[in-house]
Write a structure and sequence with these properties.
Strand order of the largest sheet: 5-4-3-2-1-6-8-7
Number of helices: 15
Number of strands: 14
Shape: globular
Low-confidence stretches: none
Radius of gyration: 22 Å
CATH architecture of the largest domain: 2-Layer Sandwich
Largest sheet: 8 strands, mixed
């Protein structure tokens, strides 16, 4: 079964075409990115994945005025007689779409119908930057690929198994019932994939496993996963709270917003920009890319050193909290850009936690990890893994399961 995974952004379409033989086995046939849609300098990058593991890459710089043109150009590349991987678009059985927010409407991937489209629209206030673009991708694909099923895979769905004591805020209950104010969580597709793979690596049946997953990148979140089901996560109503991120504050005293609004006369829009785009690592030391922060720290910049210490300390607090929440932990897994590549962050985020059963082997932990890697010492009662995430494959897998 050929499944096209689509991640539609406001000015881009990221895609991967899979040949799925089962829910557990799939092969990437092609992938790529259409970017700067709507601009004069649009680019389509297309990669055909060869049987020997190599890639054949092509790039086009034709204008892509809208998402419809972009997706048509992608389909044309996939079915090109010389460089394509399908003879006809009719070979594509389904498109699996990444959708950011489903509110409480869906806790699993869902075949798209009018009710699903309405639910995505209703969640636009909760995901104003992503849901409209995600919906555009679905509507355009439905028009162009009329013979293919459309499946929505929601970023928030995995966290819908949290109990009320984890997802509710101590606000007037009516705000939850009437306005939907609660913890939703994000990066759910990544957390689900990594938790499933980590349980297998740890030798524990997924429905009997307790796993902490740490998706660390420019945007970061953690999840506590009991028996394959999320019971808590660090992000909330929005992706702002929790861990310190590239430009986001993570957890702060909410009264700071009122204080700054009064003291500096900042508008709601200016405050929103402050906590989401000017804070985090960038706010502390001026750099939001962790590689630049490390370089600055090595050159003696004290605020860069402070930013690194604050990041690791916040991570450690959440690891400790989730160990307490789960009671028994089989494994911890690091993933995403920072989690897979930054050995310092991994080591410092779990430093001095031997009394909780976490012991890092510094030699195993050294360097980047492009494949699943055990980084804990043999004496560690909690295994620690680095597991490269694969959200596109998880979307293809879940789309296959829906259709099966």
């Amino acid at each position: 079964m050929k499944i096209l995974v689509i991640n539609s952004g406001s000015s881009s379409i990221k895609f991967k075409l899979y040949e799925m033989s089962s829910a557990e086995e799939g092969e990437v046939l092609a992938s790529g990115l259409a970017e700067r849609i709507g601009e004069d300098t649009s680019t389509l990058t297309y990669k055909r994945h060869e049987k020997d593991g190599s890639e054949t890459k092509q790039t086009w710089n034709d204008p892509l005025p809208n998402h419809e043109t972009g997706l048509k150009r992608i389909i044309k590349a996939l079915s090109d007689p010389e460089k394509g991987v399908i003879s006809s678009p009719d070979e594509i059985a389904a498109a699996g779409h990444r959708v950011l927010h489903a509110g409480e409407a869906f806790s699993a991937p869902t075949k798209v119908n009018d009710a699903v489209i309405d639910a995505i629209k209703k969640c636009i206030p909760l995901g104003p930057l992503h849901n409209p673009a995600n919906l555009d991708g679905i509507l355009v694909a439905s028009q162009i690929m009329q013979g293919a099923s459309q499946v929505a895979v929601f970023d928030t769905a995995f966290h819908q198994t949290m109990p009320p004591e984890a997802y509710l805020y101590a606000l007037p209950y009516e705000l939850y019932k009437e306005q939907g104010v609660r913890r939703y969580g994000f990066h759910g597709t990544s957390h689900k994939y990594v938790a499933r793979v980590t349980a297998k690596l740890a030798g524990v049946p997924q429905d009997q496993s307790n796993i902490i997953t740490a998706h660390l990148g420019n945007g970061s979140s953690m999840a506590a996963v009991r028996n394959g089901r999320c019971v808590d996560t660090s992000m909330g109503l929005t992706p702002l709270p929790g861990l310190i991120m590239g430009t986001r504050t993570g957890d702060i005293d909410p009264a700071i917003i009122f204080y700054l609004g009064k003291q500096l006369g900042l508008s709601l829009e200016e405050l929103d920009n402050l906590v989401n785009k000017q804070s985090g690592l960038k706010g502390i030391c001026g750099h939001n890319d962790l590689r630049d922060v490390h370089t600055a720290a090595e050159e003696g910049e004290e605020r860069a050193k402070l930013a690194l210490s604050m990041l690791a300390y916040r991570n450690k607090k959440f690891f400790g909290a989730y160990i307490a929440a789960l009671g028994r932990v089989d494994a911890i897994a690091f993933t995403a850009g920072v989690g897979e590549n930054d050995s310092w962050v991994r080591a410092q985020s779990l430093a001095d936690m031997e009394h909780l059963g976490v012991v890092i082997d510094l030699e195993r932990n050294d360097g980047r990890c492009s494949e699943p890697t055990l980084i804990s010492a043999d004496s560690s009662t909690i295994q620690v893994w680095v597991v490269p995430t694969d959200e596109e494959y998880e979307i293809a897998r879940e789309t296959y399961e829906v259709l099966s």
